Amino acid sequence: MSKKSASAGADTETRATSEHAPDLRLWLRTLACTNLIENHIRARLRAEFGITLPRFDLMAQLERSPQGLKMGELSKRMMVTGGNVTGITDQLVAEGLVVREDSPKDRRAYIVKLTPEGRRSFRKMAEAHESWIVELYAGMDEKQRNQLYELLAAVKTSASTAAAKKK
Amino acid sequence: MSKKSASAGADTETRATSEHAPDLRLWLRTLACTNLIENHIRARLRAEFGITLPRFDLMAQLERSPQGLKMGELSKRMMVTGGNVTGITDQLVAEGLVVREDSPKDRRAYIVKLTPEGRRSFRKMAEAHESWIVELYAGMDEKQRNQLYELLAAVKTSASTAAAKKK
DNA sequence: TTTTGATATTTTAGGCATGGATATATCATT
DNA sequence: AATGATATATCCATGCCTAAAATATCAAAA
């Protein structure tokens, strides 16, 4: 455990480092939190269920949409590229956890759905997964969590807006 | 069906879900925000400087530690595995942006440092990078950003503590 | 000294992720 | 119908990332 001394700005040569815009520090802290939680969840899903996080995430999307989802829809919701979804889906199909059905409306598209086994398997994992998340936030009180939830909505709005402008 | 919860009137669906869903939603929103920003930054670093985000991140760590860092230290700070750092470092060495120096104290270890060109190159990119981050948070006022910054400290503490317990 | 255990890094194999290119299907106009 | 633009998904090359095993060094005990 490296104790990153918070006051590393004691350097005489502070240049850009301690001049870091508060926004940058905010972003780096956000990233650190996400990595911390994500790495923990990833390791545990692997250790306890032998599944990868991306596969779990894809199944989670399907469980929320029992009518199934098109590949492109999965791509949007998971915020990853289409080619990526193709690969993860291939794996899950090979494991018998999801199926690709031809879309009756659009012959370009597939509808991806959980198989009964996929649904069963996912529900078991999801229960554990959720309890891990609860554990990870257990050190915060409800007010803090609600505040955080609201602030993140503001981040989402702000970042989406700014990103759209630059496109 | 398992009655591990004392909650009466549980529906047929997972009772844990309806009980603890707020934490899960909080986590998913955090993840969405991070991906949104990270994908934007990644694409822009590539488009404007032809560099990948992991390479930029590694250089950023070195710029903050002019005395250089050991591979393992980089791994810890970047929150990625050692093997990963090996690969990224190899690439940066090939591009002439960093060097591996033998540690005088420990013949197992390397000290990785930015080359003068690496430092020059990084500073230029870092300036742009920082301005992009500022843009992305521009839709939030300072009070919100400060609140968020503090709340994330609480997340970090909470998650670290919980993760440590399970190890 | 030799053994033992911990530490530092690389290597390997497999899977995830992007961006770009391709193939095919659909839609909106002619 | 024919045209061209758009949408859907896949394939490819490259690079990131992890976990586990391999290699080498260090430090301290037996």
Structure description:
Two copies of one chain form a homodimer. Chain A is mostly helical. Chain A has a domain at 22-136: Arc Repressor Mutant, subunit A (Orthogonal Bundle). Chain A is built from seven helices and three strands, in the order H-H-H-E-H-H-E-E-H-H. Chain A has helices at residues 15-19, 22-49, 53-64, 71-78, 82-94, 116-136, 142-165; strands spanning 69-70, 98-102, 110-114. In chain A, strands 1-3-2 form a three-stranded antiparallel beta sheet. In chain A, a hairpin with a 7-residue loop joins strand 2 and strand 3 (110-114). The relative contact order of chain A is 0.09. The interface between A and B is large, with 60 and 62 residues. The structure holds a DNA duplex (30 and 30 nucleotides).
Instruction: Specify the CATH homologous superfamily of the domain at 22-136 in chain A.
Output: Winged helix-like DNA-binding domain superfamily/Winged helix DNA-binding domain
Cα-atom Rg of chain A, whole angstroms?
Answer: 20 Å
Helical residues, percent of chain A: 55-70%
Major interchain interface with per-chain residue totals: A-B, 60 and 62 residues
**CATH architecture assignment of the domain at 22-136 in chain A:** Orthogonal Bundle
Query: Which structural category fits the helices and strands of chain A?
Result: mainly alpha
Spatial arrangement of strands, main beta sheet of chain A = 1-3-2
Q: Give me the count of strands of chain A.
A: 3
**Quaternary structure of the protein:** homodimer
